[in-house]
Amino acid sequence: MLTETPLHDPVLHNTWHVVALADHVKANQPLQVHLLGEVIALWRIEDRIVACQDRCPHRGVSLSQGSIDGEGAIVCPYHAMSFNGEGYCTRIPADLKITTFPQAANLRSYPVMEKYGFVWVCLGEPTEDIPVFSEWNQSDITTFRCGPYYINTSAPRIIENFVDIAHFPFTHQGLLGDPEFPEVSNYNLSIENGEICASDIHFYQPNPEGTGEAKSVSYLYKVVRPLVAWFRKGDEHQLFSIFIVVTPVEETRSIAWLGVARNYSSEVSNDDLRAFQDDVMAQDVPMVESQRPQKLPLNLQQEFHFPCDKMSIAYRKWLHQIGLQFGTC
Ligand SMILES: [Fe+2]
Predict the structure, then answer these.
(1) Domain boundaries, the chain
(2) How far is the CA of 208 from the centre of ligand 1 (A)?
(3) CA 33 to each of CA 18, 21, 201, 233, 293: distance values in angstroms, whole numbers, following the listed order
(4) Residue 3 pLDDT more than 70?
(5) Of 13, 95, 139, 203, which one has the greatest count of Cβ atoms within 10 A?
């Protein structure tokens, strides 16, 4: 069940969030998505996507159960009230003589963008642009997406899992780590331009890219937004990077999405690599769903930390500093 009243988090309210794969948004049928306790209807009008509240202002019916008419307006299934791509009411069939509609008859519409094959929505006024992943614009690089992964925990717990290497040999034994090589080398940690950056992490992996080839891998990790993180592994010749974006559906219900970019192993298909990432995520989910508390504790005394957890510690300190409340305790 979704909460009736969303917890208003000033940080996340004014942040871009991924809510869907762009391919899943159609011109002829609205798509219902969930973000921060709100229910949103998405549809396409020509070359743009529209995001509006998925609740008719008349009697509260879900508009995404309705249809899109020939003009690109969403039509409520209950009384056929229509709304255009700006959320303005355009028609009330039960009272066709009304041609000027009051503000209360309109829908809330939200800023929406399409980037990296995902649909990004902001419930308020975005304070920052959608993060830039420069490798996605390079001609020699192949990209693909993974997800949605529906996970019953808070979004910050999922980001912290993504930047945690020490669990690889145990949770991802045989794929991303080997229990015979469990140590995490000391690494550099810096905070630059509002990003938490961990560099020079060296780690032995039996099958780091799903290609079957074992190697010692060098990682660069960044947390670039409260719920967006990224890593690159390899050297300047062989690039393999993944970014993760987590949709905060409710405080302890989230959806994770991955964007993967690489410039080698062209003999391995994107579908095979996606299946590999699905396997990795399937190993992570029972770990993060069992964590208690489900919300990420920002008081560092509440959990024990390893020295190699310094990136997680920096993440928690940063979330505390920027005042993130949703999904934290
Ligand atoms: Fe993991």
Answers:
(1) 10-121, 134-322
(2) 12
(3) 10, 11, 37, 33, 26
(4) no
(5) 203
Distance (Å) from CA 281 to ligand 1 centroid: 7
Nearest Cα to 63, choosing from 49, 47, 84? 84
Separation of 115 CA from ligand 1 center, angstroms?
A: 25
Same fold, 10-121 and 134-322: no
Distance of CA 168 from the midpoint of ligand 1 (Å): 6
Report how far ligand 1's centroid is from the alpha carbon of 172 (Å).
6
pLDDT in tens, 166-181: 999 999 998 889 999 9
How far is the centre of ligand 1, averaged over its atoms, from the C-alpha of 54 (Å)? Answer: 34
d(CA 185, CA 183): 6
Q: What is the mean pLDDT of the chain?
A: 94
Instruction: Sort strands 67-68 and 195-205 into parallel, antiparallel or unpaired.
Output: unpaired
Going from the Cα of 299 to the center of ligand 1, the distance in angstroms, rounded, reads: 23
Element (H, E) at 229: strand 228-233
Given the candidates 3.30.160.40, 2.102.10.10, 3.40.50.1110, 3.40.50.2300, the CATH classification of the domain at 10-121 is 2.102.10.10
* Cα 100 to averaged position of ligand 1 atoms, centre (Å): 55
CA–CA separation, 116 and 112 (whole Å): 13
pTM of the model: 0.95
Of 10, 5, 4, nearest in space to 323 by CA = 10
Q: What is the CATH number of domain 134-322?
A: 3.90.380.10
Q: Provide the pLDDT confidence category of residue 237 given band limits of 50, 70 and 90.
A: confident
How many Å lie between the centroid of ligand 1 and the Cα of residue 285?
8
The pLDDT, as a whole number, for residue 100 is 92
- Give Cα separations from 207 to 38, 122, 147, 214, 280 (angstroms): 40, 37, 21, 5, 11
- Cα(103) to ligand 1 centroid in Å equals 48
pLDDT digits (tens, 9 = 90+) for 60-95: 999 999 999 999 999 999 999 999 999 999 999 999
Query: Would you say residue 247 has pLDDT above 50?
Result: yes
Measured in degrees and rounded to the nearest 5, phi and psi for residue 12 equal -75, -25
